TrEMBL record:
Pathway where it operates: Amino-acid biosynthesis; L-methionine biosynthesis via de novo pathway; L-homoserine from L-aspartate: step 3/3; Amino-acid biosynthesis; L-threonine biosynthesis; L-threonine from L-aspartate: step 3/5
Catalyzed reaction equations: L-homoserine + NADP(+) = L-aspartate 4-semialdehyde + NADPH + H(+); L-homoserine + NAD(+) = L-aspartate 4-semialdehyde + NADH + H(+)
Enzyme Commission number(s) from the entry: 1.1.1.3
Organismal lineage: Bacteria, Bacillati, Actinomycetota, Actinomycetes, Kitasatosporales
Annotated keywords: Amino-acid biosynthesis, Methionine biosynthesis, NADP, Oxidoreductase, Sodium, Threonine biosynthesis
Domain ACT span(s) in chain numbering: 329-402
UniProt entry tagged with the keyword Amino-acid biosynthesis: yes
Pfam families named in the record: ACT, Homoserine_dh, NAD_binding_3
Organism: Kitasatospora paracochleata
GO molecular function: homoserine dehydrogenase activity
Name of this protein: Homoserine dehydrogenase
Enzyme class: oxidoreductase
Length: 406
């Protein structure tokens, strides 16, 4: 805002004055930041009557929610990067912004610098989006990429991610899928014009992904990625939003997304398949997205207008995961003897789960059996696995992973 002030003024049509910065600890060194702008009283700052735009990058639910609502009450528009808050209380925030007649923009909340929310909300407003599929968490993508390319185990890859600053000291939000689930809720809501909260997103993290899973994916010509998948049902009567590890073929563009990068596919009826790729986190990428929103909000302010309102006219329900149809990779530890494969196949058939391929390896009385299914519901697969566990010939269900990106 200071080094590019002239450019911002030219793009907006008026200069932008930085009125104050609320921080937790005012005494920390902040090179290049005028000390007189710093305050620890965030509530007083957003409550000033002369503020046009508040930028919220605090994160979390509170005090962020209270401060944003107070900003609206005082006539200020808000630019936020707070995915957790928007995924949980987006309806309340949008309603408050609309009542106050101000903007709520949050491009930085999903996929960092990648322009994604505005294309969905504005560029594709005349199209019908049917699916959003992507990698939206850089930490987990870095870990899975290292497991794939170096043969490292999960713990080793997480340790490297932490050392490089990709993973937080407490990586739970990333590795357990909470971060990606919040982003999936936001994307599904915008793409399908309905209300989706983080609680309605099915979530699995990557903590159970093993080196054996990675190796098995390689044998199939696949890689393992943590995917956020948002879909409109074929009949158009419901939506699904889910986050989980999945095997995708090497031929799929998402398979080549390396390190901590993000990439998202959007599938629309008229536009077809669009791919958005770039750095999904970090100070500079986040700043880029925040400043883009700041320019848009300030332009609206000058013109006496607001941007697109929250569009939730379809009111489509979120379908439970039990009804979601996908393919599965099931790895079993079984006795290495005649008839076991027939037993296993009969259990799949009993529950209406069609088998695509089977791979078996046996040695000294033990065997591993890998079954890849055709498309089936999660409920049917769960019933199949329960029955498999009851077979004397099945020693363990070693792993279950979905297969995507056909």
């Amino acid at each position: 805002m200071t080094t590019t002030a002239d450019d911002l003024a030219a793009r907006i049509g008026a200069p932008v004055e930085l009125a104050g910065i609320a921080v937790r600890r005012a005494g920390r060194p902040r090179p290049g930041v005028p000390e007189h702008l710093l305050t620890t009283d965030a509530e007083a700052l957003v409550g000033r009557g002369d503020i046009d735009v508040v930028v919220e990058v605090v994160g979390g639910i509170e005090p962020s929610k209270h401060l944003i609502l107070k900003a609206f009450e005082n006539g200020a528009a808000v630019v936020s990067a707070n995915k957790a808050l928007l995924a949980k209380d987006g309806a309340e925030l949008h309603a408050a912004a609309e009542q106050a007649g101000v903007d709520l923009y949050y491009e930085a909340a999903v996929a960092g610098a990648i322009p994604l929310i505005r294309p969905l909300r504005e560029s594709l407003a005349g199209d019908k989006v049917n699916r959003v599929l992507g990698i939206v968490n850089g930490t987990t993508n870095f870990i899975l990429d290292k497991m794939d390319t170096t043969g490292a185990g999960y713990s080793e890859a997480l340790e490297e991610a932490t050392a490089l600053g990709y993973a937080e000291a407490d990586p739970t939000a990333d590795v357990e899928g909470f971060d990606a689930a919040a982003k999936a809720a936001i994307l599904a809501g915008i793409a399908f014009h309905t209300r989706v909260t983080a609680a309605e997103v099915y979530r699995e993290g990557i903590t159970e992904v093993t080196a054996a899973d990675i190796a098995s994916a390689k044998q199939m010509g696949c890689v393992v990625k943590l995917l956020a998948i948002c879909e409109r049902s074929a009949d158009g009567e419901s939506v699904t939003a889910r986050v989980h590890p999945a095997m995708i073929p090497l031929s799929h563009p998402l398979a080549s997304v390396r390190e901590a990068y993000n990439a998202v596919f959007v599938e629309a009826e008229a536009a077809g398949r669009l791919m958005f790729y770039g750095p999904g986190a970090g100070g500079s990428p986040t700043a880029s997205a925040v400043l883009g929103d700041l320019v848009a909000v300030c332009r609206n302010r000058i013109n006496g207008a607001t941007g697109p309102a929250d569009s939730v006219y379809t009111k489509l329900p979120a379908k439970p995961m039990d009804e979601v149809v996908t393919r599965y990779h099931v790895s079993l530890d079984v006795d290495d003897r005649a008839g076991v494969l027939a037993q296993v196949a009969s259990v799949f058939a009993e529950h209406g789960v069609s088998i695509d391929t089977v791979r078996q390896q046996g040695r000294d009385g033990d065997a591993s059996l890998v079954v890849v299914t055709h498309r089936a519901t999660d409920a049917a697969l769960s019933a199949t696995v329960d029955k498999l566990r009851a077979l004397d010939s099945v020693r363990d269900v070693a792993s279950i992973m979905r297969v995507e990106g056909e």
